[in-house]
Amino acid sequence: MQTPKPNEVLQSFAAKHGVNVLNREFAELMDSLDPLRGCRERFAVPKRGTLPGADPVVAEVDKECIYLCGNSLGLKPVKADLYIQQQLDKWAKMGVEMHFEEPLPAAKCDSYLREELGRLVGADPSSVCLMNGLTVNLHLLLLSFYQPTQTRFKILLEGHAFPSDRYAMRSQAELRGFDPNEAVLEIHPREGESTLRTEDILKVIKEQGSSIAVVCLSGVQYYTGQKFDMETITKAAREEGCLVGWDIAHAVGNVRLELDKWGVDFACWCTYKYLNSGPGCIGGAYVNKRHERRDAPHLKGWWSNKESTRFQMRDGCDTAPGVDGFRLCNPPPILVALVKASLEIFDEVGMEKILDKQFLLTGYLELLLKAHFSIGDTDVPSTTVITPEDVTERGSQLSLEFSYPLHQVHKELQKRGVVCDVRLPNAMRITPAPLYNSFQDVHQFITILQDVFSICKTEAA
Ligand SMILES: *Cc1c(COP(=O)(O)O)cnc(C)c1O
């Protein structure tokens, strides 16, 4: 079945309502019909004037900022204050007794949001848990799942992967006595292309599969915004006898995930990007049920024990099955409270509606970028979208490259109350998040970008 393209849907919708798709009126119309329009008020949207980079002369300081950075740090759910305060109050009122008292009893809080997390990643609730941070979880999982032999010792990841993942994988190879330059295999896009082709990934898996121990790419690439075909890649890698892990930091809360169905072996993620749970908040991990009784060793702590024997504090206790056995420490209820404030919004809204809006909202951003800053026209500053055009290969983020200096464009946007980020060497990441961004945010961003370009042009002259 041919999926319609967002620009076609938007154009025909505009035509039906007799408005020009490029005008602000259209953004207002889309917002008025948006089933998620009420969600924005459940988040703290910063005012332009309180942003450190805003210039009071041009920023319209009392207005809400144009926050397009949910790929890096999602906005704070309003309920977060209440849920954290509840934990602080409980601590003040009952001290250590808070460990077993609602809400979110400290000693059990890491088991509280399993249902919600399971729904987000497509997993049985018992296969997911909250613990540590992302890079720690990646290490803990690799320590068990990466069992290199002399013939099968490679880890496959995408080129230009998030640096922390690359460091983690290279150090894992070193820890096992391998040269990371040989053991960590990185696939790069073809000459002249910005993103990877699935066929090229599959070819490497087919050709080198017998020497690959673990395939561990990111579900959505942080730099390009490309979503990989996780199902096809997982299947192909497993057929070659590789174990398959996914870093879903940029995928969770952003794209449809079916970890169980796809047969993924393990996965890990952070909760502060699309999951809006606050900087450095507790991470998540997934281990497929087929590994519940795995022989491969993993690191243990008291929290790896089954709950029933955890407090016996002696040797010989049963390790909890699956992902639970990877836990080491007692969990932080203040952080879990933050995740709860966010996940209850996701759970109420559901990924289906989020993805429906993403299709239109990111599509609208793409449409306006193309209409105003087309490539090839020498008089107009060019903006290239390096994220795939095919909606099945992306989430909310579009990564842009400009013909003007990236940092100058970024600084001028910041002055005007736009929040987005740049990643070296060349990309600006723009992410309208369906839960709190509006079509008018996108329209205003484009208008401001036009101003910024005219300033860059004047300064270049
Ligand atoms: C955000 C992100 C990280 C960050 O790791 P932390 O351990 O949370 O600091 C790592 N890897 C990827 C792919 C990311 O997107």
Automatic annotation (TrEMBL):
Subcellular location(s) per record: Cytoplasm
One GO biological process term: quinolinate biosynthetic process
This enzyme's EC code(s): 3.7.1.3
Gene3D superfamilies: Aspartate Aminotransferase, domain 1, Type I PLP-dependent aspartate aminotransferase-like (Major domain)
Catalytic activity: 3-hydroxy-L-kynurenine + H2O = 3-hydroxyanthranilate + L-alanine + H(+); L-kynurenine + H2O = anthranilate + L-alanine + H(+)
Family: Belongs to the kynureninase family.
Protein name: Kynureninase
Organism lineage string: Eukaryota, Metazoa, Ecdysozoa, Arthropoda, Crustacea
